[in-house]
Amino acid sequence: MQNDLPIYELYAIRYAMRDANRSEHFIGGDPHDSPMPMDYFVWLARCGDHNVLIDTGFTEVVAARRGRQFLHCPIDTLAALGVAADTVQDIILTHLHYDHSGNFDQFANASFHLQEKELQFATGKYMRHPFMSYSFEVEDVCGIVRMNYKQRVMFHDGDDNLCPGITLHGTGGHSAGLQFVSVHTKRGWVVLASDAAHFYENMDSGRPFTVAYHVGEMLESFDRLCKVAPSHDHIIPGHDPLVMRLYPAVDGFEGRVAQLDVPPVKEPDTADMP
Predict the structure, then answer these.
(1) DSSP class per residue in 23-85
(2) Could you give all domains of the chain from N- to C-terminal order, each with its CATH number?
(3) What is the pLDDT of residues 43-87, one digit of tens each?
């Protein structure tokens, strides 16, 4: 029964950002090409001594090479929240793009949860095309392959229950094996969209993000997010700076960690977009 499910604390950890314009975030551009910065997050779900990390971010070295502004090492932020890397039992990789799967080797005791088709995609024939491979760091992909040989990667095929209170939803679109995640919290099921919706505005306006393996699947993903979530304000997009304005900061972590297991300050409104 739903009432018997564990209740997870849920946090968005902001670790990097980049300046960008609106035309970079919508296929077909945008007639009002004003600034629209992008944030980079990992997410922590915690219930008792069970720590689940959703994505692992990228390193400072990768940030410098790709022109991203590195704010805080996500592993250091976890430690400051009282979660040492070696206490993380499960890591959900929503996909294997560079900004979601770096730092994986810092988690000595974690199992990694990944859609099988994502690893097939990241090691398959399309990676010979720079247009497709640009979003991946080859050393991260190779590292996950090595983790698989160490029996530390758990593969999923579509929707699956990771454990009571955490559900994986295979969706594709942005990447071939993208998955988003539902977490049971004290305000109900919160849906971490990851890159199924980079910004609220992508989803609300039905305009896909510019990096897409399959545009049709990305559009369908917007509908799936709305179907799975109890309401619009239970959906957390993957890169939207608005998240840090809508949700309260953890004391001492202003601009760095937002608490997602409480309601937003107000209903997300794309009119608030820069």
Answers:
(1) GGSSTT--SS--B--EEEEEEEEEETTEEEEE-----HHHHHHHT-EE---HHHHHHHTT--G
(2) 2-262 (3.60.15.10)
(3) 999 999 999 999 999 999 999 999 999 999 999 999 999 999 999
